[in-house]
Write a structure and sequence with these properties.
heterotetramer; A mainly alpha (641); B mainly alpha (102); C mainly alpha (169); D mainly alpha (494); A: mainly alpha; two-stranded antiparallel sheet; D: 494 residues; mainly alpha; globular
């Protein structure tokens, strides 16, 4: 497994080349460097996976945890040290595949999407940086390495969201994304510090006795770490950065904000899962409730969005919440007895990465075609973009959980896991799944069906109402279509991967079997959702939709504004922190502390000016003072001494 | 025989009247006049101490004499300065003489 | 203390001197102040006579009353009319000076009456001129030839200095 | 010839040569040759020091030497270095070197400027190599005084006010310091001024320690921008010319932390243990307070100055946590902050030199106009907010992990409070980056501005390499300083 080092080294190398010399390279060369290195990484990742899983299980029936590289990067205390290395176990190998696949797709796709953009080389440099950091994150041998790459991932996300750095919204979004996740990372860091102190190590396999003796601190530490994960994975109420992050180029949204980085939180919880389940099952359940609420919240909000990327963003939030729920409902690490969620979560992570990546790439193709994010500018596109249409439909079916697309299988496992934890949870999550189907198909119909915006514009143009001839939507170039088709194929087929064979909570093989009741009920709900969407949106705005809109105007308004969460955060940051704390502190510094120092200065000066008049050169006053002094001295000497 | 204390009290009175004048005068000549009073009072004391307590030697006597001499020279110089100041500044009021101040 | 001629003269002189001194420091007119100073100086000469220091009295009259006052008068006359009037001082300065003077006076008087002076030895009579001459020019202990010379040099220096300062340039 | 003496001799020769130089060319060549020599010397010293330690030289101070110059009080010119001072000397040499290039085009009176500049660096080097309290103090003063002229003459804005304020406050600090030094001298029996000997005697009575520990700590703390004695820093930095800001924030503020460690804590360990909590509270306030007030500043240099308050607060904070790791972290933070702030001030100076404003409301879209400087600024910003791969991260993490070694509730709480600064730092850095670099340029006068010249590029690249080098390979630095920290640590925890 020595070649794994190249999985990390190549993207880093290509980042360095592109960052240092990129501006001088032609676009094509820069893109090729990035893509080639990523292709090699992908091949290596698959080779690694083949070797790893091909080697089979060890004597104990588990896949071994391999650590081909590990060295001490920075010794801190006698016991604690930051190590850097590569660790291979089932989930990290799976993540390697996911990341390299999606990343490669995005690299290829970007050739078409970003063609001719200014800063093309920079874009590829950042992509390489991101891929490097994300890969480093998943193969981390210890929590601190994870944190380091976690930060790097955050910064590459920041750079990529702010890629269009002349756009105001992009600047604000990138800043917001970084600061919100940084805020969450603070908790992550504190959690790590607690964990490190009590476990005596940063590694994922601490001395259990030490953890037992630490008592309540470990659940607290794990909870804090989860907050960090919630920040990256956009759990309520730290989700606010993700919709705004859609200001970045769409392929970036596909890679970072749909497939890979945002699931880092899930990955973190999965990574720490043995410790969670052993020492803090209650924290896991809190995670489940947070996840369930987030799933519902995001699904509802997604129904009311008009910007197609925002819809996808909220759908991402909702789907990640599904994964969190799946992890949270685990009650043991045995997949047969309450530990199914772990596998389900990882499975969903895998399938979701594919179909959500596909959705974003499709959205990118559409945006590329109509030059807008707003669904009002779309409609009736199926004629113009057949391939995009088909792949998008596949992705929608997958996310809605329709047999035999991959989403069906993974979502079904999640719901089964929920059911084994609490039937109510299952009902609730199935409802959210139905809602998912609804809003995805709403989106689908609004884009591809209904009245064509282009045609209506064209009609207006011909009548002479508008001056500019509207831009004809066109199918995307091959560089964009190929990745979409590949991902669509994976989305179709991934469900049949015997996932339980490879990844389970305790490492033992688990054969996925469908829980028929759950499967049927969830499929039914999904179909209901799709049907509703079909009725409401297939033929454009019809009566039902309009009455619904009028009836629940307030609610829709609130959902459109994401239930005013952004306004709340804005209030907290702008009004409370900036105006309420920072300004007063700056004022206090200037007018109290600094003024006090100035006062010392001016008091000295004033005093000096006052006593200067004593030194007036006027002998008479000298004498008066002298005589008074003499008198006082004389009186003292005569009467007191 | 007049008691020595009478002379001393008189001298003290003169002395402090001189001091008072020295403080309150606003004019160089006035200040100088007050100084003369002070000197005078001291002269009286010298003479009285000599005459009453140590008549065998003439120390007080001579001190007074020298003091008178010195007072004379001092006054001469002082008045010369005052005249000079007046010639340059056209005033001898203390308030207005502040060219050397600060 | 019996009330004899000498005493009466002393009291008269004292009253004159104190009154003249007070006027000398308070009057506004510089010429008057000089005149009052003259009275004080004459009074002092009188005191010297009472003490039988006739030579001293004579010196006082000639040098002080004769010389110095003349200088004052000349100065007062040379300096223009405008500056001759003495202006008021500030009330603060006035009180400060007054309290200082009064306190000092009180303290001094207190000391005079509480201090143990040595036994009073009655003076013989008028100091003979011969003795004065010897003492002034003598070189033994309690003789003053050196201070005499110093004073004479000083006087010379003052004379030259005063001329130098006051001469027109 | 003791190699350490060269750190005094070279600046002295440079002073003479500068004095004799006739024109700008000669002045510049003297500076380049001299500062390169210093840098090479510092690098040689570092490698040689590591080699000697590797060869088993385990004396507390290497290259130790001593010449008495004032017998009645037993004041010696004693020199010697341990790992910490070697690291500091290296830092100073780097900053002096890059600062020379940062003020390459400084006008007018270039020669005079460099004269004072070299005198300042002489003081800094002298301070770091001395092991005699009084000699140390003397060099300390030598380093402070030129600052007044450098800011007062070559500064900008309210320079006279700032220079006066800075000098007075720092002088106030050194008054405390002198008091403290005399306290230590007499407390330890008035036999020696040598730090090592005093530490070996370890005979300063506890009640004396209680008096002089706060005094010395405050004295050095003023220079280390300890709340509430930090207000000289914003005004001073804002008015100072570029290279002076660099040297001041980069090196001079480190004198404070170094002094606190080497003098206050090393010589008065008992009081340091007992009274640390007072200063921990103050430094925690510094950390958070500096960061928070940086958020609402509008002048680039003010932002950076407050950020320095926050970061230097973290240095003192870590020292007072008094675990071995946190102390190592403190030294790392000194190095890291020195390099990062120098980089920051250099970039701000370059931007200011072009746009003639530092108000973030008047700057925008610089990325398009001066890409090199903007990228440098972003890198500096990211390093400042503790991005892994740059020095800030290493230092901060070492500090936080080290501070967590103190398990009681008080230390835990303040550590967590101090941790929040990493978020606040992100806020003010990104705010500035978003405001001045991104977006469209709104001021058409700025459109014609040029990007960095070769000397500026050289400065920036040198510093970025140092920052990244320290961030990527922190091992050797932490090895270098570990020995020195260990010695002091043993005294603190007998």
């Amino acid at each position: 497994m020595e070649h794994t080092i190249f999985i990390l080294a190549l993207p880093l190398l290509s980042f360095l080349i592109l960052a240092l010399a990129g501006m001088k390279l032609p676009h094509k060369v820069a893109g090729t460097i990035g893509t080639l290195s990523l292709a090699t990484v992908t091949v290596l990742a698959y080779v690694t996976a083949a070797q790893y899983f091909g080697a089979g299980r060890g004597a104990d029936g588990l896949f071994p945890t391999l650590v081909p590289y590990n060295f001490t990067w920075l010794p801190l205390t006698e016991s604690l040290q930051i190590e850097m290395g590569i660790m291979l176990d089932p989930i990290s190998v799976m993540m390697l595949m996911v990341i390299s696949t999606v990343s490669l797709m995005v690299h290829i796709y970007s050739f078409g999407y970003m063609k001719g953009e200014k800063g093309f080389q920079r874009y590829y440099a950042f992509l390489s940086l991101f891929t490097f950091s994300m890969l480093g994150l998943v193969v981390a041998t210890n929590i601190f390495q994870m944190y380091i790459f976690w930060e790097l991932v955050g910064v590459s996300s920041y750079l990529l969201i702010g890629f269009y750095y002349t756009k105001k919204a992009a600047i604000a979004a990138s800043k917001k994304a970084f600061i919100v996740t940084r805020f969450a990372d603070l908790f992550f860091l504190v959690g790590i510090l607690f964990y490190g102190y009590y476990a005596g190590t940063f590694s994922f396999e601490p001395d259990v006795r030490l953890l037992f003796s630490a008592g309540i601190v470990i659940p607290v530490a794990l909870g804090l770490m989860f907050i960090g994960g919630a920040g990256k994975s956009a759990m309520f109420p730290l989700h606010i950065w993700l919709p705004d992050a859609m200001e970045g180029p769409t392929p970036v949204s596909a890679l970072i904000h749909a497939a890979t980085m945002v699931v880092a939180g899930v990955y973190l919880v999965a990574r720490m899962f043995p410790i969670f389940i052993e020492f803090a099952p209650q924290v896991l359940h809190i995670i489940a409730y947070v996840g369930a609420f987030t799933a519902l919240y995001a699904a509802v909000v997604a129904c009311a969005q008009t910007d197609i990327k925002r819809v996808l963003a909220f759908s991402t939030i909702s789907q990640i919440a599904f994964m969190m729920v799946a992890l949270g409902v685990c009650t043991s690490d045995d997949p047969h007895a309450g530990g199914l969620g772990y596998m389900a979560s990882m499975f969903h992570l895998f399938t979701h990465a594919m179909f959500k990546g596909l959705l974003f790439l499709g959205a990118g193709a559409i945006i590329h075609a109509v030059h807008s994010n707003e669904r009002d500018c779309m409609g009736g596109l199926r004629k113009y973009m057949p391939v995009t249409h088909i792949t998008f439909l596949i992705a929608c079916l997958a996310i809605a959980g329709i047999f035999p697309f991959s989403g069906f299988f993974s979502k079904d496992e999640i719901l089964t896991a929920c059911y084994s934890y609490a039937p109510m949870m299952e009902v609730f999550m199935s409802g959210v799944a139905g809602l998912t189907a609804f809003y995805m198909f709403r989106l689908y119909f609004l884009i591809f069906w209904g009245k064509s915006y282009y045609e209506s514009q064209l009609a207006l143009f011909e009548k002479g109402r508008i001056e500019k001839k509207p831009h004809t939507p066109h199918e995307a170039p091959a560089a964009m279509l190929i990745p979409m088709v590949i991902l669509a194929a994976i989305s179709c087929l991934a469900g049949f991967i015997p996932f339980g064979e490879f990844i389970t909570a305790n490492g033992e093989a688990y054969e996925i079997h469908l829980n028929t009741g759950v499967a049927i009920s969830s499929t039914l709900l999904a179909i209901i959702g799709i049907a509703t969407a079909t009725i409401m949106y297939m033929k454009g705005q019809n009566k039902v939709t309009l009455t619904m809109k009028v009836r629940s105007k307030k609610f829709i308004q609130a959902a459109y504004h994401r239930f005013y969460m952004d306004e709340l955060w804005l209030f907290v940051t702008k009004k409370v922190i900036f105006r309420g704390i920072s300004r007063p502190i700056a004022w206090f510094d200037k007018h109290a502390i600094d003024a006090f120092m100035d006062l010392l200065g001016s008091a000295t000066q004033t005093f000096a000016r006052q006593i200067r008049t004593f030194q007036s050169g006027n002998i008479q006053s000298y004498c008066i003072w002298f005589l008074h002094g003499v008198m006082i001295l004389a009186l003292i000497l005569i009467f007191l001494v | 025989m007049i008691p020595a204390e009478y002379y001393l009290v008189l001298a003290a009175l003169l002395f402090f009247i001189g001091v008072f004048g020295f403080f309150t005068r606003r004019n160089l000549l006035g200040v100088l006049i007050s100084t003369e009073l002070v000197l005078n009072a001291v002269d009286i004391n010298f003479a009285v101490f000599n005459a009453y307590y140590f008549p065998e030697h003439l120390e007080g006597f001579f001190f007074t004499m020298f003091a008178i001499g010195i007072a004379a020279s001092e006054t001469a110089v002082a008045i010369a300065i005052i005249l000079n100041v007046y010639r340059n500044m056209r005033t001898i009021r203390l308030k207005e003489l502040k060219k050397l101040k600060f | 203390m019996e009330l004899n001629t000498l005493t009466i003269i002393f009291i008269g002189l004292s009253l004159l001197m104190v009154a003249a001194a007070l006027l000398a420091v308070t009057t506004r007119n510089i010429m008057r102040a000089t005149t009052y100073l003259l009275f004080v100086l004459f009074g002092t000469a009188g005191l010297y006579f009472i003490l039988h220091y006739t030579f001293l009295g004579a010196v006082q009259v000639t040098v002080y009353a004769g010389g110095i006052i003349v200088l004052f008068v000349f100065a007062a006359l040379l300096i223009g009319k405008g500056t001759r009037d003495l202006t008021h001082t500030s009330i603060l300065r006035y009180t400060a000076g007054f309290t200082a003077a009064i306190t000092g006076l009180a303290l001094t008087v207190y000391l005079i009456f509480t201090h143990q002076f040595p036994e009073v030895q009655h003076p013989v009579s008028v100091v003979p001129m011969k003795l004065i001459g010897h003492t002034m020019m003598g070189v033994e202990k309690y003789n003053f030839v050196l201070p005499f010379e110093v004073v004479s040099v000083l006087l010379l220096a003052c004379m030259v200095g005063a001329l130098l300062i006051a001469r027109k340039r | 010839m003791n190699i350490l003496n060269l750190f005094i001799v070279i600046p002295l020769i440079m002073l003479l040569a500068l004095w004799a130089s006739r024109n700008l060319r000669q002045t510049r060549s003297v500076m380049v040759v001299g500062s390169s020599l210093l840098l090479l010397l510092a690098i040689y010293l570092t490698t040689d020091f590591i080699a000697q330690r590797g060869a088993g030289a385990d004396a507390e101070f290497l290259y130790a030497a001593s010449w008495q110059w004032y017998a009645p009080m037993n004041i010696c010119y004693s020199i010697g270095v341990d790992g910490i001072s070697v690291a500091m000397i290296l830092l100073s040499a780097i900053i002096v070197f890059t600062g020379t290039f940062a003020s390459w085009r400084l006008q007018p009176m270039t020669k005079e400027f460099f004269l004072w500049y070299v005198l300042l660096s002489l003081g800094v080097f002298g301070f770091f190599i001395s092991t005699d309290l009084f000699t140390m103090f003397m060099f300390y003063e030598t380093a402070l005084i030129p600052m007044y002229l450098l800011i007062g003459v070559w500064g900008s804005g309210r320079k006279e006010y700032s220079a006066m304020k800075l000098t007075l406050m720092l002088m106030g600090g050194s008054a405390f310091l002198l008091m403290g030094i005399l306290g230590i001298y007499f407390g330890s029996g008035a036999t020696t001024m040598n730090i090592m000997e005093i530490a070996a005697l370890a005979n300063i009575p506890v009640n004396v320690q209680y008096i002089f520990f706060p005094i010395i700590f405050l004295g050095f703390g003023v220079l280390g921008a300890l709340f509430p004695f930090h207000t000289w820093s914003p005004d001073g930095h804002a008015s100072a010319p570029t290279s002076v800001s660099m040297l001041h924030a980069g090196v001079l503020m480190k004198l404070g932390g170094y002094g606190c460690f080497r003098v206050a804590m090393y010589l008065l360990p008992q009081a340091a243990n007992d009274l640390a909590w007072i200063f921990i509270i103050l430094t925690t306030i510094s950390v958070v307070y500096g960061a928070l007030s940086a958020i609402s500043q509008t002048d680039l240099k003010y932002i950076n100055a407050y950020s320095s308050v926050s970061h230097c607060g973290l240095v003192l904070f870590a020292l007072l946590m008094m675990t071995r790791t946190s102390c190592t972290g403190a030294i790392l933070q000194m190095l890291s902050h020195g390099l990062m702030t120098a980089l920051f001030f250099a970039l701000i100076g370059m931007i200011y030199g072009r746009t003639h404003t530092r108000d973030i409301h008047e700057l925008s879209g610089l990325m398009k106009i001066m890409p090199f400087l903007s990228v440098g600024y972003i890198i500096a910003g990211l390093a400042n907010l503790g991005l892994p791969g740059f020095s800030g991260f290493v230092a901060e993490m070492t500090i936080f992990v080290g501070s967590f070694e103190q398990p009681d509730i008080f230390h835990r709480t303040v550590t967590i409070i101090a941790c929040t600064s990493i978020v606040i730092t992100a806020v003010y850095i990104l705010r500035v980056v978003g405001k001045i670099l991104y977006g469209e340029c709104r001021n058409e006068h700025h459109l014609a501005l040029s990007d960095a010249t070769w000397d500026e590029r050289f400065t920036v690249i040198c510093l970025i390499i140092c920052v990244a080098g320290l961030g990527i390979a922190p091992m050797w630095v932490s090895n270098l300083i570990d020995g020195g920290v260990g010695n002091i640590f043993t005294i603190l925890h007998p």
